[in-house]
Amino acid sequence: MPDRGTWQFTAGAAVIGLAIAAAAVTAAGPWDSGQRKAERDRAASLGRTGGTHHQAPGRGVDAAEAPGPAPAPSAPGVLAAAPAPVTRSDTGPADPPATSSASVAKVLAPLLDDPALGPVRTASVVDVGTGKQLYGRGATTPMTPASTIKIATAAAVLSATGPDHRIPTTVVAASDFHGITLVGGGDPTLDMPRLRSLADRTAHALRDRGVTTVRLAYDTTLYKGPVAHPIGAGNDNIAPVTSLMLNEGRLDDSTEGSADRGADPAGDAARAFVGLLSERGVNTEAGPTSAKAPAKPFPLATTHSAPVSALVERMLTNSDNDIAEALARQTAIAGGRPASFAGAEAAVTEQLKRLKLPVAGARFADGSGLNRADKVSAAFLTAVLSRAADPAHPELRPVLTGLPIAGFTGTLSGRSSAGSAGLVRAKTGTLSHVDTLAGTVLSRDGRLLAFAFLAGDTSSASVARPALDRLAAALVG
């Protein structure tokens, strides 16, 4: 890999780069339609082509209310789009491989020594096509990963439940139909349109039986253990972790990022449901009250989340902590373990072992990365990303398609270094004095590379993040 100062694309190579960027943006974009539109507009302004629709099934009321899960779309092949290796166009000898171990080390080593990354920094770069590690520094050293641990959460839940699984929220009745229970299945993305639809069908089912007055309870017993994340109650980065909530417990109209959260998301969702039933002519005698559903319930109505594949993409693109904790618990449920922090940790670890990933020294204390007790190595993260690109594991492809795109989407929408916009896809991670970045990039000779850079004891995210972005950009060539 030549020195970064000499990496200048020819006009032809630049066109190839723009085409790759367009493919990355349009063929594997994130879940949000507004984001896709912005990407298409920006790509068009740069001369890119494309426009593949990437709306995940299950978005919107009609699809979400389908009686059974609909298959998630298969993600596009990752390796097939790589261009042929670039060689010199004159009669001289071909350029040396841009991604040889020696050339990668030459360009990354000085960038990794940037004081902005603090005194403790580790790195791993792997050629996904061959599985060969091209560069490593402290690659097997466990580090606090912050939100890059969501890559592990994603792989675990996709492996455990499959990408097509949807999370239910259900209304059931007692034998006399005068007592009904709203049962949380662990879907943090339940929103008002879907709750209204659930109320519509519940009211219709009750009217068919001549019932107009009910006792309403809500059941959150699916989740076990502490409700508050170890980061502490009242944190605007995550709601209390409960199996029933409306719009992630947010007290505003936001759907991503930090926001004030209600102290009782389950109760708030149940009270909203009471109001919707009342509007539909079903009155409640009292409540709602927290109680376990009857042992032999009669199902009245159900709403399903988007497929896990879409939830994984949304989690990764926006670094959504509430979805991350929910998906960790879905992993626990699928593995027959308690849906708690401890149960999720055990289940995630088990699934990653089944995927033959190097979990020695790793700890998955939560699904979101907010817990500083989490530990993974740079080599572990590149191994997960490589496994997600493996044709033998198509169920893991959303791990890659959900990664934010530098300069375009999610937590990388405002981040890119020279030459990396549209070409680097990576999960960001930030805690106080911890800054991380892990993802994929197409090198200039057409190789798909997985990388992970973990920095600890950083002085400031404002200087550490650009240093990490320069490392990723250096791999583009």
UniProtKB/TrEMBL annotation:
Keywords: Carboxypeptidase, Hydrolase, Protease. Its EC number is 3.4.16.4. It is an enzyme of class 3 (hydrolase). This is D-alanyl-D-alanine carboxypeptidase/D-alanyl-D-alanine-endopeptidase. It comes from Streptomyces pratisoli.
